[in-house]
Design brief:
alpha+beta; single chain; seven-stranded mixed sheet; 561 residues; 13 helices
Length: 561
């Protein structure tokens, strides 16, 4: 055997030995490299913690398969990549892509079954070089774990956005949607939410969609303050077993004893979500022959309590040029009734400007007859989550509200130094009891005048949590406005509030993750269709062919000797 052959064999054995050692060492270490600029495929610590909860097989069916429009192929690809990341960290996660329309004979049965599960399809108009066609797409997935099932929405409905913009927004929320679904079916419920009753709050049918959403992650139940009159101490002890109290649009006055129960719940660490209307005004009261009604202040006997905590809700209405659309009947009597869209200024359409995780990356949020919130200096940290637009102002009450306001002509001069009115505020700190240095409505041996670190959120519109009812008096999606056909982000905002108050901040941080997703300019692509095809398809083939010829030429030249 020649020396060169011995050296070659020795080098080969050394290489094999090094590879074996590296292979053994790699078995003890795990790392995935994300080379994207925005770290799109780097899972957040919250997602990784949720993945650890999956101890048994978790199967996921993803209904993004088949002949999909171009935009949804992007969503399909991003979904596949993200599920592969989840699976890489936990092999118990198993996923598959399914085409519900693959078999024509079974497709109708599949569609009905998905409908019953709440997976509604969307119809997309596909424009291919001037030729338009309709495609049905199911942007959903279903996860099953330990006989529990949860739907995963893959497409975020963004009001007024094109299909491409919706897909981009959906990619932003993919990790949140998947992690949230896995968390719901793998984590046992621990926190308890009380929905306060007894003071004319919204009936359950009008908050049904919100309750259903909260119930997926937390224990939830009604808590009636009527028992305070007979047994205030027992009522307080019962309420303190809950972690969060939601007060949704009360319309009747609170007694001092009821306020003490709520106050001591807060001082002892209980979280609160207030949705308060300080003006008595309903949209339905405008649909009469005159198209007008009187809006007047509502006294809930909560002003002193709010003042002590560091805010007040004034009995004014917010009029905002950035209003929501409303359809009203137009035309002369005797002619066929026609409906025309108008800008309704008493229903502000708020787009969050704050970077706080509760509202970051949210779309439009719809208010109805909102009231201004004033913040007071008292050592409590206040963060304005939502505020009206620059072109908004306060309208004092009592005042007549008339549908004819839609015809009003205004200019920026009408809103000098009046805009940016707070409509939702987060308060964090140690709250002082409103009964500090005061006579208590009822004796309480455990009374505390200064509380532990706590937080609450105030929203100056009870209707923000209210879902509408369809013609069969069934609740429609929270945030969906049947009058205009628009879907607002009210539900996402409220769920972020609940998650934040209950310290489930990890999921909110996933939702607020920023991704830099470049978009193709469809107009430019259409104008340069042939050049684009050559650049994206032909040029790579030419490059491969060029290097292939050079490689062949060099190989022949080397071995021809």
């Amino acid at each position: 055997m020649t020396t060169s052959k011995k050296n070659n064999i020795q080098s080969l054995l050394i290489l094999i030995a090094i590879l074996l050692v590296l292979n053994v060492i790699s078995g003890y270490f795990f790392h995935r490299f994300d080379l994207t600029k925005d770290k799109r495929y780097t899972l957040s610590p919250t997602s990784l913690n949720i993945i650890k909860q999956v101890q048994n097989p978790l199967s996921v069916k993803i209904y993004l398969q088949g002949d999909l429009p171009a935009e949804f192929k992007r969503l399909q690809s991003e979904t596949r990549d993200l599920f592969e990341e989840f699976q890489a960290y936990n092999k118990n996660i198993i996923f598959e892509f399914v085409d519900p329309l693959e078999n024509e004979e079974e497709s109708m049965d599949n569609i009905k079954e998905l409908y019953l599960k709440g997976l509604t399809p969307i119809n997309i108009t596909v424009d291919d070089k001037g030729k338009q066609s309709q495609e049905m797409v199911f942007p959903w997935a279903i996860a099953v774990y330990n006989n529990k099932e949860v739907n995963i929405p893959l497409l975020k409905n963004i009001m007024g956005a094109s299909t491409t913009e919706k897909v981009v927004g959906s990619v932003q929320h993919l990790e949140y949607s998947i992690a949230d679904a896995i968390n719901k079916i793998t984590k046992e419920k621990q926190k308890k939410v009380a929905v306060i009753k007894g003071n004319g709050e919204l009936p359950d049918v009008f908050i049904a969609k919100f309750l259903m959403q909260v119930r997926e992650s937390y224990h939830i139940g009604p808590f009636t303050l009527d028992s305070v009159a007979k047994n205030p101490t027992g009522s307080l002890e019962a309420l303190q077993k809950y972690d969060l109290a939601i007060i949704a649009k009360p319309t009747e006055t609170f007694t001092d004893a009821e306020k003490q129960v709520l106050d001591q719940f807060i001082v002892n660490g209980g979280k609160t979500l207030w949705l308060i209307d300080q003006v008595n005004m309903e949209m339905d009261s405008l649909y009469n022959d005159s198209g007008a009604t009187l809006a007047f202040p509502r006294d809930l006997n909560l002003n002193d309590m709010f003042f002590k905590y560091g805010f007040r809700i004034t009995p004014d209405l917010v009029k905002d040029e950035s209003g929501s659309s409303i359809k009203l009947a137009t035309g002369e009597q005797g002619s066929a009734t026609q409906y025309q869209e108008f800008n309704w200024k008493f229903a502000p359409q708020v787009y969050p400007s704050s970077k706080h995780p509760i509202v970051k990356n949210l779309g439009g949020i719809k208010f109805d007859f909102a009231n201004p919130i004033d913040t007071l200096k008292n050592g409590i940290k206040k963060t304005v989550l939502l505020q009206s637009s620059q072109y908004s102002k306060k309208i004092g009450s009592p005042v007549e509200v008339n549908l004819n306001i839609v015809e009003e002509e205004t200019s920026p001069n009408h809103y000098l130094k009046t805009g940016y009115i707070p409509l939702s505020v987060l308060l964090e700190g140690s709250f002082h009891s409103m009964f500090e240095n005061r006579v208590l409505p009822f004796d309480q041996q455990s009374f505390q005048s200064l509380g532990k670190a706590n937080k609450m959120i105030v929203i100056s519109d009870g209707d923000l949590i209210k879902n509408q009812l369809d013609k069969n008096f069934q609740p429609v999606e929270l945030g969906y406005d049947q009058r205009s056909g628009n879907l607002y982000d009210n539900k996402d905002f409220l769920m972020n509030c609940v998650n934040y108050l209950l310290d489930d901040n990890g999921l909110i941080n996933i939702r607020s993750k920023d991704l830099d997703i470049p978009l193709l300019d469809r107009n430019k692509v259409s104008e340069n269709y042939t050049a684009t095809q050559i650049l994206t398809i032909g040029f790579p083939i030419l490059v491969l062919l060029f290097f292939g010829l050079i490689f062949t030429f060099l190989r022949k030249k080397k071995y021809s000797k």
